[in-house]
Batch of 2 targets.
Target 1
Amino acid sequence: MKKSKKIFPAPIKNKFFNIGSGILTAGIVLNSANIANAFTAYNFSLSNEDGPVSGIVEGAVFLPDGDGTFPASDVIITSAPVSLGYTTFPFNALTGNIFGNSFTVDDGVIDASKSFFESQFFNNALFGLNTPFSGGASYLTDINNPDFETINTGILDSDSSTLTYSQGSPPLTFNFSFSNNSGKVDGSVGGLIQLSDLSVIGLDIYTIGASSVVVTSAPQSLGYSLPLDVLTGNIFRNSFTVDGGVIDASNSFFESQFFNNALFGLNTPFSSGASYLTDINNPDVNTINTGILNSDSPTLTSFAVNTPEGTSIITLVGLGILGVSCKLKKKL
């Protein structure tokens, strides 16, 4: 049996994960819900080759869209042998002490040989994917692992020969709409939201950022050419809660300053729950009543799954800006 090397780098404290124990109960708030950019979920799987427990560990890694080398925002374990002692799935291994977190995507596929991850996520429990500090091993220890230098108490593949990655399922697409009750323009706004489908990895309740928010219908007098990508510019909030395959409108929020001073919002907490699309020539970022405004979102529909016929929906990539921390005070 192999043990990990005794010399570890200084751990990188996780800056995003906001559930302290790392062992989750119902529901999960993904770290990517706090980040404006679009994310892709990649499935992973590894099998025991050298440890005392037979079986497979499966889960998902969340990375920014596109090719490149990135740290994961979430590393979710969705299944593992019961004998390891983990009683609740899924749980996030990206918490506690993070010793390595780097994934390389080439042509839409994770390059396993150039990607690695290692965390001490719960007491001395360890999880690793192709870890350079353990000679390229992949593993998930027993929950009662005796110390953070030992990796052979559970599932262990010493050379990561069984480690595989695959891209997750296509995103879910939801319709939304809201009507004017307090703005200067009569009419309604409608559109489409894309979210990663995490039900395929065992998540029934989760909170995540949208990968696309597109306005497909709005009054012509607002001055926009449609369809309109509003997941760009300054993203002040991008957080959607999915429960049983349906967006929970009361716990989902979006707000962007997507073009000059033009603003779009869905149930925005900075505006007391308002939904709106301003005029394209909106005078400043404190004003939300120059177009369609629903002041408390009573007409914001429960988001419904969209099933496109024939061709696929419009795919627009929102670039976004990370971490705008200021809260806007809106005036009606």
Target 2
Amino acid sequence: MSVITNAEQKKEIALVQRKVNDIVTKAEDYKVIKSQKQLEEAIVVLGEVGERQKLYKARIEGDIIAPIKQGLNNLLAFVKPLKDRLAYAEALVKDGIYDYRESLKKKETEKGEELTKKVEAGEMNVHQAAEQLEKIERKSDVIPVRKVRDIEITNQKLIPAEYWVIDMVALRRDALAAGAPEIPGVKVIIREIIVKQ
């Protein structure tokens, strides 16, 4: 299924694609630079790459993709209440089932204790007690459950350091802030990157 149905959009994409392909072909000549002249040419080509990136951003991302994303976001916002209502309905039913299941478990435990006392007192034999307990167990067997393995943190201090995640955004922001105190284990470095002119 094609998202782009507008012939004008297809032309626009084809134009940008040609310009991108042309600059990629040019850029491939500068994978290995062996002279000052070639370096100067490469800097010019790098500027042209930047122009093509701006063209892509404006015409493809801005004119074509942005409206599609906005339309999708509007649609998702429009139907979100339906999704939320379904989640609410599911939670209501699951909570009801869970509460009933818990009450059956409680009855099962209480009945088991009661039947054990009767068997010990000689008021009932083991076979009769088992039959009565089985009736309660059958009720809880119809409730659909799935067992999943999960974890619960009991003491955060005991968790090994390899499981802790560093918040790089906050760390970088705080370490690079003007007048920030030095953060143990962090060193501010200056890295050179090639820029387009």
